[in-house]
Every structure is written in C-alpha cells, then in structure tokens.
Write a structure and sequence with these properties.
Blueprint lengths: L1 E3 L2 E8 L4 H4 L14 H14 L4 E6 L3 H11 L6 E3 L16 H4 L3 H9 L12 H18 L4 E6 L1 H12 L16 E7 L4 E8 L8 H4 L9 E3 L5
Parallel strand pairs: 2-5, 3-4, 3-5
Antiparallel strand pairs: 1-8, 2-6, 6-7
C-alpha cells in the first residue's frame, strides 16, 4: 500500500468506551470521565493496528478520555501527544450530564438537533456550526504543518462527524447520518494544493492506506509514493 508523500494523512480517532457512553449521557466537558476496561481494551486493539504506521504526532482533545486514548495509541512508538482545546467536545451547556432519553422528551429542541442541527444552539452552550468551524480550522492548520506526514487526531463523535461532513461537502443538517463509534478510525488525505480525499469512515477493521490512484493530484508524479506495509 502507498500514499502520496505530498499529502497529509490525518487519522481521526474517537476516544474509547466509558461509562457515560454506556449510560447514553452527554459527558461534554465534565472532568474525570475516564476510559473503562472495555474502552482501554478497544483502544489497545487499535494501537496494535496503528503500530506499524510512521505516525509523527498525536493531537488530542484536552479531555481525560481523549488524552488517555492518545497516550495508549502513542505508547508503542513513543510518539508525542499534544492537546488542543479546539479539538474538545461540543459545549452542551445546560444539556451537559443529561441522559439522551430524557433530552429526547424536549420534542421541539430534539427535532432541531436531529433534523436541523445547523440552526441549533445548546442552551448556554455552542452551536454545531461553531464547533465545525473551530475543528476544521485546526485540521487545516495541522495538514499544513504535516503535509508530507501521517498524524492522528483524537476527539469526540460529534466533532469528528462535523469534520467529516465538511470534507465530504455535506450540508451540516445531514451530519447526524454519519456514524462514529468508540475507538473507530476515519482517514482524511489533504493536499496543500487543495485536494481532499475521505479515505475511511468509522473503520474498526484492518487498515489499508489509500493507493496513489486515490490520492495523488493530477499534476504530480505518479511514482512519488511511499510504501507502507500493513496487515490485511
């Protein structure tokens, strides 16, 4: 397998399982939400799959569950982890800590969240539009810093879905159609010349990096790829 050396390959990883996910509660920025045993195991499995890749850097949400995920993933090859506040979870405001089942009873607001999220702002919190804007700005900055490298970004389900929706050219009102499971991998290939390839979404199986025919720009040398061996 190979990828074009002039493109940044960004591995988007959602944090591992935790008790708040199991209880279907909005953790948001609540401190002290840690990976549970299941979460640590699924992240260790992902770390094994990623260990053969020359990942240069891990960028992480500053929340505990993401930092713990990043540290497990980075440990096999002693890669540096840097936290970035704009990769953090949606600020859910008054909805933070609530169970989704209870929130669904707020029928008018819940309908907005599910069908017209681009117009919704969480009470005393952020809008999805604001979250998408801050997250995409960070991805663009990272892609320019690492335009010839593989890096990983560890964040949260809604944040990753909003990033993917942007690069898919999907209207923000449709982003809830994307699924992002715990400890799943999604892959973006971004060129400094502007080309975009969404290579994987919500992947939890063997990793195969994109071939040249999927990622190279039409005006670039088709033989300037970097070979990477991966499990099938």
């Amino acid at each position: 397998m190979c990828y074009h050396r002039r493109m940044a390959l960004i591995l988007l990883v959602r944090h591992g399982q935790n008790e708040w996910v199991k209880e279907r509660r909005l953790a948001g920025w609540t401190p002290g939400v840690h990976l549970n045993d299941e979460g640590r195991q699924e992240v260790k499995a992902l770390a094994s799959r990623l260990s053969s890749l020359p990942i240069k850097m891990f960028y992480s949400s500053p929340l505990d569950r993401c930092l713990e995920t990043s540290e497990i993933l980075a440990e096999p090859n002693a890669v540096k982890v840097e936290s970035i506040i704009d990769l953090g979870e949606v600020r859910y405001g008054k909805w933070e800590g609530k169970k989704l089942k209870k929130l669904a009873r707020k029928k008018r607001k819940w309908r907005l969240v599910q069908h017209y999220p681009g117009r919704f702002r969480f009470p005393d919190g952020e809008s999805f539009m604001e979250v998408q804007t801050r997250a995409v700005k960070i991805i663009e900055r990272i892609s320019l810093l690492h335009n010839k490298e593989i890096i990983s970004v560890v964040s949260h389900a809604d944040v990753i879905k909003l990033i993917l929706a942007h690069y898919l050219g999907m209207h923000i009102d449709l982003f809830q159609r994307i699924s992002v499971s715990t400890a799943s991998l999604s892959i973006l290939a971004l060129s400094e010349k502007g080309s975009v390839h969404v290579v994987r979404i919500n992947d939890s199986g063997p990793i195969e990096l994109p071939g040249r025919e999927q990622t190279e720009d039409s005006d670039q040398d088709p033989d300037s790829g970097v070979e990477l061996e991966n499990e099938r």
